[in-house]
């Protein structure tokens, strides 16, 4: 018994002393630079008002279709029942038979409702994708440094709004004030690719690539952190998505905060972990064609 206890104690100590393997993601899993309070934008603010009229029209057409379908269905069912009663189809029927028929009819009705709902949902998703990705046909790679593609029209520099500005009172605690004409969907789509680019640069110690994306102070912190890792790393981004969790601007600068979610792994260590990073970006509006730079990372 004592021998078994000794072996168990040794195994417990070995497990506790074993080094914890983790994927070496961009930034080393630490927080650097500036940080801000963040939160997803309220649902009503993300609603596209241009589609309200289309939705109302679609609802009206759907209600008309439902009314006509109900009338035609009622006439058809009435005709069937009349023919069955007239032909003696219910002669000798039992109460249990009626329950079975009612149950089968209910099941068929539910299946029909589910089929129509799934069909309508797929149509709405295709319409939403077509609207949310107006630049999907563009094969050029989006870039934080190529800012003009995220602004529509002729506005090279966004003008301040009365509701914007740092420190100005907002309806919510977390501001979501975008510069005029800013393409949110295009920026988010580009950020996914840039997350992969920076992770690859971190793996191969390509500091010159990282320097193009970050502020000077953040770059110095990242250089010191990367120096703690020996050789190339093997962290692969399996999948990643992004969401704007803060946006604000004034006459001099614009700021955005992106929250990434997804999964990454270390192919050598055999470790998989979640992506939960937040990047804080800033753009100098006093300079033409100024790039978006990462000024803070929250792990």
Automatic annotation (TrEMBL):
<feature type="transmembrane region" description="Helical">
    <location>
        <begin position="98"/>
        <end position="116"/>
    </location>
</feature>
<keyword id="KW-0732">Signal</keyword>
<keyword id="KW-0472">Membrane</keyword>
<feature type="signal peptide">
    <location>
        <begin position="1"/>
        <end position="23"/>
    </location>
</feature>
<dbReference type="InterPro" id="IPR007379">
    <property type="entry name" value="Tim44-like_dom"/>
</dbReference>
<keyword id="KW-1133">Transmembrane helix</keyword>
<feature type="compositionally biased region" description="Polar residues">
    <location>
        <begin position="44"/>
        <end position="54"/>
    </location>
</feature>
<keyword id="KW-0812">Transmembrane</keyword>
<dbReference type="InterPro" id="IPR032710">
    <property type="entry name" value="NTF2-like_dom_sf"/>
</dbReference>
<feature type="domain" description="Tim44-like">
    <location>
        <begin position="168"/>
        <end position="299"/>
    </location>
</feature>
<feature type="transmembrane region" description="Helical">
    <location>
        <begin position="67"/>
        <end position="86"/>
    </location>
</feature>
<feature type="region of interest" description="Disordered">
    <location>
        <begin position="36"/>
        <end position="63"/>
    </location>
</feature>
<protein>
    <submittedName>
        <fullName>Tim44 domain-containing protein</fullName>
    </submittedName>
</protein>
<dbReference type="Pfam" id="PF04280">
    <property type="entry name" value="Tim44"/>
</dbReference>
